[in-house]
């Protein structure tokens, strides 16, 4: 079923040729937002000088990174599309993590989204976790799982619906408690406070529950949602990124994301009054990131839904792409 005006943009060479002339940045460039000072670069996250160029001379309070997962789902015949061998992937991770830590404040938060390939020894999640132990300045804080609504492997296996989020801290940064929209419904945890027996609902500060480290309340992005960005094959839900940023930063704090893609972290920062420095190695995704910000400021819409972010391309009503359903996805 074709539902989007753009196909997956990393692998479609024809559409890439058409879009590249409309991209205002090339590898090595950094754009600075004249209004709020956000930055968007076309940079390789594994290159120390490139990352320094993005940041100079600032340091971030929080890094929210969503690198390629090296995990493929879907169509088996094309499964090896841009998948690295594990040693290469770990080396790639070591390099970008090193750069990301360099640009953090003394007291800061570090997040990395990741996956575990159940068809391939659960790589790279455990390998990434072990590699992270090399960075002694970071403390492990939480291992969060976010539940997707759609998955794969329903007939002969448990449906794969999880995405992993690793949380570390450097120094001693502040953390603010945040809540979900899920009402508290379970009663029955009694406790005696100052001689009076009170139950959990009486004691709580909120009528809704905290997210904890298993997030089940976040809708996976699909083409009908306002925040959808056609062509972005690995877009994270804004709600998830906003949750992280709200808990771990304050107004005007600097947030960094070295794997921008559809620009979710930038939009989250714009909405929450933070400043975002972000980059992607692909000029098309850097352009999409800038366009998403401009579109948000013009329309207050968080994404393009099923409309083409590249209006210059005359598209017919025939849609040419799908999102994460019947095509191969390597996150
Ligand atoms: C999983 S996506 C990030 C999704 C993003 N969080 C979002 O919500 O749209 C990973 C992105 O990393 C980019 N990427 C891959 N290798 C990179 C590298 N060495 N340096 C910077 N970006 C890279 C890809 O082009 C892709 O856009």
Write a short abstract of this structure.
This protein has helices at 13-19, 48-55, 86-102, 125-132, 200-203, 238-248, 264-272, 283-299, and strands at 30-32, 39-42, 60-65, 72-73, 104-114, 138-152, 160-170, 190-193, 196-199, 214-215, 254-257, 275-280, 329-330.
- The average pLDDT value, as a whole number, equals 90
Which ions and ligands are bound to the chains?
S-adenosylmethionine
Radius of gyration: 20 Å
The major β-sheet equals: 9 strands, mixed
Mind explaining what this structure looks like?
It is built from eight helices and 13 strands. The protein has 331 residues and is of the alpha/beta class. A nine-stranded mixed beta sheet has the order 1-2-12-11-3-5-7-6-10, with helices on both faces. A two-stranded antiparallel sheet has the order 4-13. A hairpin with a 7-residue loop joins strand 6 and strand 7 (160-170). The longest helix is centred in the first third of the chain and has 17 residues, at 86-102. It is globular, with a radius of gyration of 20 Å. The model is unreliable at 75-80 and 324-329 (pLDDT under 50). It binds S-adenosylmethionine (SAM). The site of S-adenosylmethionine has 20 residues, from loops.
């Amino acid at each position: 079923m074709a539902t989007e005006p753009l196909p997956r943009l990393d692998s479609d060479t024809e559409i890439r040729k058409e879009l590249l002339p409309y991209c205002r940045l090339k590898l090595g460039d950094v754009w600075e937002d004249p209004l709020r000072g956000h930055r968007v670069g076309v940079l390789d996250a594994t290159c120390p000088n490139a990352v320094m160029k993005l940041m100079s001379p600032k340091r971030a309070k929080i890094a929210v990174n969503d690198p390629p997962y090296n995990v493929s789902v879907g169509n088996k015949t094309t499964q090896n599309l841009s998948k690295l061998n594990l040693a290469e992937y770990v080396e790639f991770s070591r390099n970008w993590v090193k750069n990301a830590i360099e640009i953090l404040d003394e007291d800061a938060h570090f997040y990395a989204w990741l996956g575990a390939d159940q068809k391939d020894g659960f790589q790279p999640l455990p390998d990434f976790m072990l590699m992270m132990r090399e960075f002694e300045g970071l403390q492990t804080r939480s291992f969060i799982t976010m539940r997707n609504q759609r998955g794969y492997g329903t007939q002969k296996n448990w449906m794969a619906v999880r995405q992993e989020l690793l949380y570390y801290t450097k120094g001693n940064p502040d953390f603010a408690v945040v809540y979900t929209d899920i009402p508290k419904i379970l009663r029955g945890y009694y406790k005696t406070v100052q001689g009076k027996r009170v139950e959990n609902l009486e004691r709580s500060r909120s009528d809704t529950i905290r997210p904890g480290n298993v997030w089940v309340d976040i809708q996976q992005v699909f083409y009908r949602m306002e925040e959808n960005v056609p062509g972005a094959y690995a877009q994270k839900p804004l709600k998830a990124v906003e949750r992280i940023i709200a808990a771990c930063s304050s107004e005007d704090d600097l947030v960094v994301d070295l794997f921008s893609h559809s620009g979710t972290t930038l939009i989250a920062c714009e909405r929450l009054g933070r400043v975002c420095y972000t980059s992607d190695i692909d000029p098309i995704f850097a352009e999409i990131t800038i366009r998403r910000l401009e579109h948000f400021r013009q329309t207050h819409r968080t994404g393009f839904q099923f409309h083409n972010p590249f209006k210059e391309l005359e598209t017919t009503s025939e849609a040419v792409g799908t999102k994460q359903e019947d095509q191969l996805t390597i996150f």
